[in-house]
């Protein structure tokens, strides 16, 4: 009987151990699955690390490539700036040669006119009449036979003759005592005049190219006289209308003048200086936007200081309907790409792409880039703008700057 109880206890213990063994086997199976999952996760982690390393290397290469591109772009910009400077120098030299050629062509044309008149006069003189002796030589002067407008319009080109202030003028032409009695198409004086108002007072009421010689100088210049804009007698010193002329020029070119007198042109700082310092002049700026709206700004006085003062601007009182975007530049010196006279730490001409009496930098930029259509996109505000009229990001369609004597105003 005792043995039977022991056997039952042993069986019970065996069953208990069997159940424990089964439980342990189940745990081992579960742990084995976890181990497999851990191994799989380790493998995926290694793959992910490899992918991250690959992406890091790609990013590093991209950063290096962009840095190299930025360096190449900087080098390219420097080369472009150098090429631009070279082009400006070449353009200036070309303009100088062109101006000299035109001056000689004009002189030759004038001499041909005089020769033709002398030949006609000789044919009219009786054969028995002795030829009159020429008078004593007169001081050097430039002869301009009448009528001036008819002659000047026959010139092959109308580029501004910025080199007419020559130290040595051509030798005096011989004059016959009866030359003034030769028939002429008009009795109007043929110039040169001190300005366009004097030409108007002498009866020349047509807007055209005229020869002007300011007082106190031997400097001759061709200008466009606007005799239609009421009351007439306006001397045009700047005009923008179609973008045909590049206004991003150097100091010497802005000093002498450039462009086409009957189109886009800049009369020249030296010419403007001599004109505005022979009396009291006012400035009229007319503007037109791309919708056809026209406005104006007028300043009661306008003159420039000499080159020794870098053509400092002197302006008077404003009135008009365009808004005053020029008084802010009053008292400022002229600045170009190669002559920095503005108050800004950099060169305003570099950003505004023109020559102007920059402050820091501009409320007006009438010598900037002529953009078609009005609103433009540019890294800087470099268009032809008048800030009080359409703002600095709007390039105007047409601009004219012209001067006229204003005896009621004093410097």
UniProtKB/TrEMBL annotation:
Record PROSITE patterns: FIBRINOGEN_C_1, FIBRINOGEN_C_2
Cellular component per GO, a single term: extracellular region
Annotated ranges, domain Fibrinogen C-terminal: 187-407
Keywords: Angiogenesis, Coiled coil, Disulfide bond, Glycoprotein, Secreted, Signal
Recorded superkingdom: Eukaryota
SMART domains registered for this protein in UniProt: FBG
Secreted recorded as keyword: yes
SUPFAM superfamilies: Fibrinogen C-terminal domain-like
InterPro entries assigned: FIB_ANG-like, Fibrinogen-like_C, Fibrinogen_a/b/g_C_1, Fibrinogen_a/b/g_C_dom, Fibrinogen_CS
Subcellular location: Secreted
GO biological process, one term: blood coagulation
Protein name in the entry: Fibrinogen C-terminal domain-containing protein
